[in-house]
């Protein structure tokens, strides 16, 4: 049997694919949520994947699921979508993971067409393709990051960019501190919980690629959503800045480095 990971939030459309696969060599495994699909991929080792791009009411969209699959170990994948035009907001994001085909999400698609698409996707299993890989402790996607918990290096968990409170670096490792007051984040067991990544600070900031995270010191970066900057005057009429970082589990103050003052001034001027 060929295992098919079907990531689709429309139950009726999923059922049509399941019904079409009856009597064939395809075993359909359905997930209606992006994070569930990631766990299913790790646990079930599917042979091919069909992924809905949009995935409403999911923490991550289908493109992020596909990016995860590409970095963990490429399998043939197709995107289920109503939007295949170059004018679509998803087009440039989707093509970066080199989907093998697009599955049109229309009411007109019939059983023979669905089986044909599954067969086409199955043929790609014999074609080896190489893709750039990131180190095993961090995988970037369109929606956020997958990172290893400090106590379980074989597991990867999802971390949205906006959940990051601040980052520090020591001895070549970055500690990424998340906000722990987030429903469903069972792996945030301790108020001092952090993710440990073997990269330098600038590399992590580049990977995050978000204006939310700003470097304020050679060994510190903060999420401006959780940060208040305070200008402090000295008796020599010089100014420095303090960054007060506060979330549900973190309360700390960091002095802004001299070479990063202009970044803070630019932020305060907005």
Task: Give the key terms.
270 residues, alpha/beta, Rossmann fold, OB fold (Dihydrolipoamide Acetyltransferase, E2P)
Structural topology:
Blueprint: E1 2-7, H1 11-20, E2 26-31, H2 34-44, E3 48-52, H3 62-72, E4 77-81, H4 91-95, E5 101-104, H5 111-123, E6 138-140, E7 144-147, E8 157-160, E9 164-170, E10 173-178, E11 195-197, H6 201-208, E12 213-217, E13 220-223, E14 227-233, E15 239-246, E16 251-255, H7 261-268
Helix pairs in contact: 1-5, 2-3
Q: State the CATH superfamily name of the largest domain.
A: LytTr DNA-binding domain
Structural class: alpha/beta
Based on the structure, what is the oligomeric state of the protein chains? single chain
Please tell me the overall pLDDT.
83
Number of strands: 16
Enumerate how many helices there are, as a single number: 7
Q: Tell me the span between the first and last alpha carbons.
A: 58 Å
The backbone outline, from C-alpha atoms, is elongated
Percent in strands: 25-35%
Helix content: 10-25%
CATH C-level label of the largest domain: Mainly Beta
Q: What's the order of the H and E elements?
A: EHEHEHEHEHEEEEEEHEEEEEH
CATH fold-level name of the largest domain? OB fold (Dihydrolipoamide Acetyltransferase, E2P)
Strand order of the largest sheet: 2-1-3-4-5
